[in-house]
Amino acid sequence: MYQKNLCSIHKRLLHITSFKSKSIYINCTNIPKPVGFSPYTEEALAVQLASILQACADPSVLLQGRQVHAQTIVNGICKNSVLGTKILGMYVLCGSFMDAKNMFYLLELWYAAPWNFMIRGFSMMGWFDFALLFYFKMLGYGTSPDKYTFPYVIKACGGLNNVNLGKLVHDTIQVMGFEMDVFVGSSLIKLYGENNCIDNARCLFDKMPQKDCVLWNVMLNGYVKNRDSDNAMGMFREMMNSETKPNSVTFACILSVCASEAMISFGTQLHGLLVRCGLEMVSPVANTLLAMYSKCQCLFDARKLFSTMSRTDLVTWNGMIAGYVQNGLMGEALYLFREMISAGLKPDSITFSSFLPSVSESASLKQCKEIQGYIIKHGVPLDVFLKCALIDIYFKCRNVAMALKIFNQSTALDVVVCTAMVSGFVLNGMNRDALEIFRWLLQEKMRPNSVTLASVLPACAGLAALKLGKELHGYILKHRHDRRCYVGSAITDMYAKCGRLDLAFEFFRRMNDKDAVSWNSMITSCSQNGKPEEAIDLFRQMAMRGTKYDCVSISAALSASANLSALHYGKEIHGFMMRGVWGYGLDGALCLHTLFVYMTKVKSKSVQFHMNAGVWGTYLGVALVHDNFVLVKWCIKENFDMDPHNAGYNVLPTDLLPKGLCY
C-alpha cells in the first residue's frame, strides 16, 4: 500500500504545471554592511568564501564551516544564491541536518540546487523516505528537477526496494531527456540490476551512446548480484574487447564470479593479467583474489599471495582466517588469529565471526569464555553476526545457559539471532524449546527466512510432529521458500522421520533443483526406513544425473547394500568409490560401511584403505560374528600395535577361548 501511495503521489505531482508560490526566506538586508562595500567587492568576497566552503565539506571541519557562514552574515551577503547553496551543501556533507534545514528555508527554492542537496543528504544518510518526500515537495513547489536530482532519487527508490516507483521516475527522466546521461543511466541500471530486473538494465545499457568504466562495472555487478555468471563472464569479455579499460573494481567483481563458481583456471589467468596491469597489490583486488583462492580450496596459493602482499589490512587478515575456516583447517585459523594480534591489529566483529567456528570445532568452553572476555574488554561491537557466532559456539559446547544469556541480553533481536537459537536448540536435542523460539518469532511479527524454516523443520522431525511439519510446509509453499535446495532437503527429511516416506518421495520428485544434500537426505531416509532397494536406485540416479556424490551418499548406499546382504550392490558402489575423488584415502566411516558389504569375503591382505583403531575394532567384531579366527588374530595384532594401552583388547581374547582360539 505504501509503495502504491508513493507512485500515485508521483503521478499527480507531475501534472502540476502552474503552481506558484512566494519563496520563503529571511530578509538579511537589515544587517549593516561595512562602509564602502561595493557590489564588485561583494561578488569577489562571495567567490572567495564559496571556494573556502568547498574545503569544509567534512564533519571534522564543521566548526570552520560555521565560521565562514557567520562571515556571510556579518558582511551582508547572505542573500547571494550561489553562496547560500554552497553553505547548504557544506552542512549536508558534514551531516549537520538541523543547520542544513534552517539554511534550506532561507534560500530561493525556484531552482533545483537546494533541493538536490537535501535529497542527496537524505540518501547518503539512508533516510530514503525523507529523500523521496523532498523530491515530491520539489515537484509540488513547481521546481523542475535537473540531471543532478535523479541519481539520488533513484538511489532512494532502490534503498526502499520500490522498483515500481523507480520505473515511474524513469518515465519522467525519458520525458525530460536525461536518460542518456551517464550518471542518471548508471543509477537506473544499478536500480534494475539490484531488484531482479536485469533485462531492463541490459536494455538501457545497450542504448547508452557512451559507456565509461563505471557504466560497465554497474552492469557487470548487476549480473553478479543476480548470480548470472554466464552473462557476467560475457559482459567482461565484451568490456575487454571494447575501448574501455577495466579497473580494480572490474577485476574485483569478476574475481567474485570465479570464487562463487570455483573457476580456478580462469581466476589464475586473471591473476596473471592483474600482474601485467600492476593491479595485483591494490587492496580490494588482492582481497578478492585471496577469497577466490580460498573458496576454490587452493589454500597454498592463497597463503603464498598473503605472504607476498606488501600491505595487509584487517580485511586481508579476515579473508585469510575465513579461508582456513571454510576449508576445515581450524588449527591454522587459530594460529593466524594469534599472529594477527601479535602484529598489532585489532580484530573486529567480522574477525570474530570468521574465527569463532574454529573454536566451536574443538568445543573448548574455556576458550569460548576467554574470547567473549576479550570482546567485552576491548569494546568490540556486538553486531548480529558476532552474536550469532557466540550463540553458536556455546551451543556446540553444550552450554545452553550462556547462549540463552547472550540472547536475553540482546536489545535488538532479529530473525538471524532467532535462527541461531533455533539451530542451537535442535543441535542439543531441545526440540520443544526450538519451536517455542519459532512461535515467539512469529508473535513478534518477524518474518522467518528460508534458513529459519530449514532450521525449525528438524525440530518437528525430532518430535515426530507431522501436523506441525505439514503446517510449516504450507507456510514454505505460500512464501515460496521451497525453491531453496536446503529447505527441500529439510522437508523430505522431516516427512521421512515422521514415518511418511511416501510424502517425502512425492515432494522430492517435484523438486526442480536437487543438489547433493537433497539426494543424500532422500537416500539416507530410504536406507533408514527399510527401503534399501529404493536407496540404491536413487544413488544410481544421482550418479547418472551428474550430481557429485560424497561420503554421505556412499555411506547411505553401502548401508542399504548391507541391509540387503547384497554383495553385488556393494561391489557396484565400491566401484563408484574407486572412480571418485577419494581413491584409497577413504575415512573410517566409508571403510566401516564397505566392511559390512564384504563381511564374508574380506581377506587379511586385501584391505588397502587407511585404517585406524576404530575401524580395526569394527573388523574384529565382524570377524567374531562370522567365526573367522584368522581375521580375529590379525585384527587383535593390529589393534595392539596401534593402541597397546587399550584395556578392551586385553579382555576380548578371554571371551574367545571357548570358541577354540588359542591366544
Automatic annotation (TrEMBL):
Transmembrane segments: 117-136
One example of a Gene Ontology biological process annotation: RNA modification
Domain of life: Eukaryota
Entry GO MF terms: RNA binding
Key words, A-Z: Membrane, Repeat, Transmembrane, Transmembrane helix
Pfam families: PPR, PPR_2, PPR_3
Entries under InterPro entries matching the protein: PPR_At4g14850-like_plant, PPR_rpt, TPR-like_helical_dom_sf
PPR repeats: 212-246, 313-347, 414-448, 515-549
Transmembrane helix in keyword set: yes
Gene3D superfamilies on file: Tetratricopeptide repeat domain (1.25.40.10)
PANTHER family in UniProt: PENTATRICOPEPTIDE REPEAT-CONTAINING PROTEIN
NCBIfam families in UniProt: PPR (TIGR00756)
The protein, known as: Pentatricopeptide repeat-containing protein
Organism for this UniProt entry: Liquidambar formosana (Formosan gum)
